[in-house]
């Protein structure tokens, strides 16, 4: 039985698992910038920028102020700021104050939204150039 691994031993390499969840627990306050490849669940308070390739969930006791860029954002607590996401769900206890850019935006009964929203598809239309036909309409 070996106590030390050889430097080229494959078992000594660390693998990164991006399928977990990072949790900011209730009673925790953080300011800064988070960039993660996994899910993020906030039950405490966070102020700053969040970039996640997966889901960002704000729990019932959670408060997030700032910017969120994620695949999906689920709000049960409170959010103030701007969201750029594929899917945004405000659940029945959730409150969102700010701006949303999303492909899908759902507000459950009892959920609250104050601000402005745009669909990602409408942004593509705003940037589209008009088609100009020649005198032969071709």
Report the count of strand segments: 9
**How many structural domains does the protein architecture include?**
1
Averaged pLDDT: 85
Structural category: mainly beta
End-to-end separation in angstroms reads 79 Å
Q: Main β-sheet, in a few words?
A: 9 strands, parallel
Low-confidence stretches: 1-7, 9-17
Q: Beta fraction of the residues?
A: over 45%
How many DSSP H or I helices?
1
Radius of gyration: 21 Å
Helix proportion range: under 10%
N-to-C SSE string, H for helix and E for strand: EEEEEEEEEH
* Gross morphology: globular
Description:
It is a single chain. The protein has one domain. The protein is globular, with a radius of gyration of 21 Å. The N and C termini lie far apart (79 Å). By secondary structure, it is mainly β. The protein contains one helix and nine strands; from the N terminus they run E-E-E-E-E-E-E-E-E-H. Strands 1, 2, 3, 4, 5, 6, 7, 8 and 9 form a nine-stranded parallel β-sheet that branches.
């Amino acid at each position: 039985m070996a106590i030390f691994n050889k430097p080229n031993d494959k078992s000594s390499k660390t693998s990164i698992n991006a399928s977990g969840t990072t949790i900011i627990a209730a009673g925790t306050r953080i300011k800064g910038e988070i960039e993660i490849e996994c899910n993020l669940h906030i039950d405490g308070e966070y102020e700053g920028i969040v970039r996640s390739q997966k889901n960002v969930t704000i729990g019932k006791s959670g408060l997030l102020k700032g910017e969120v860029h994620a695949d999906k954002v689920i709000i049960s607590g409170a959010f103030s700021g701007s969201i750029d996401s594929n899917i945004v769900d405000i659940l029945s206890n959730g409150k969102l104050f700010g701006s949303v850019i999303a492909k899908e935006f759902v507000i459950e009964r009892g959920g609250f939204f104050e601000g402005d929203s745009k669909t990602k598809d409408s942004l593509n239309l705003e940037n589209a150039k008009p088609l100009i036909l020649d005198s032969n309409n071709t």
